[in-house]
Amino acid sequence: MNHAYARAFVVAAIAASAFGAGPSAQEAAQSPEQRVAALKKSLAESQARLRKYEWIETTIISLKGEEKSRKQMRCYYGADGKVQKVPVGDAPQADQGRGGRRGGRLKEKIVENKKEEMQDYMERAAALVHQYVPPNPDAIDNAKKTGKMALRPGQGGRVRLEFTDYLKPGDLMAIDVDGAANRLAGVNVNSYLDTPADAVTLNVAMAALADGTGYTSQTTLDAKAKNIQVVIQNSGYKPMGQ
After folding, report:
1. Other CB atoms within 10 Å distance of the CB of residue 88
2. Residue boundaries of the structural domains of the chain
3. 9 φ/ψ sector (left φ>0, alpha ψ -120 to 50, else beta)
4. What are 52-97's pLDDT values in tens digits?
5. Contact, 205 vs 186, CB < 8 A?
6. Which residues, other chains included, contact 60 with Cβ-Cβ below 8 Å and sequence gap of 6+?
7. Please, is 42 exposed, middle or buried when counting C-beta atoms within 10 Å of its C-beta (0-12, 13-18, 19+)?
């Protein structure tokens, strides 16, 4: 992707047995601390390059395979370095139908409460995505300091960096690296909302712009206990002001 990514992952790429060649003395001498420092630096540089762009974020929430909501936001980095989001299009209209009898109103109230509860769950599931993507350099550093980072050979010429207890006790974030291109290839997360019983999985696909800037193209969250799926797509990247 760029020199920063190459520096961050070259040791991991060569260490994988799939490549069949041993690491050089210089590469083997790199400490885990140096690898994490390079990873943190590459993440920061990638985010800095993305600040020149704006894009469209589409969030699709489905329940039992049926799409329940679709929202689009225009995204860009503000002066404070945080992503700003502006709604695209009109907000969906609320249902207007009302029951006329007391029994009808009571039943409607129960249904409405269930809808609100489920909507709250879906929104919290969507918010969880943004806690993991993009990876937080401080959380990565903390996982390394507490001995909760592992380097493993991946599949298809990839190398996997695994971080346990990344944000929550018992969670796992795995970063896949394309060893040949030294490019961040994807992220997979096993986590949960309130308790481990609310288990969710994240699958993150990466892509690159014409200038080599890496970005998250699609994140898919599955909350199987609730039959909820949240898909967040990023597209339409263009330089700010164009």
Report:
1. 13
2. 3-239
3. alpha
4. 999 999 999 998 999 988 999 999 999 888 899 999 976 444 444 4
5. yes
6. 67, 69, 70, 230, 231, 232, 233
7. buried
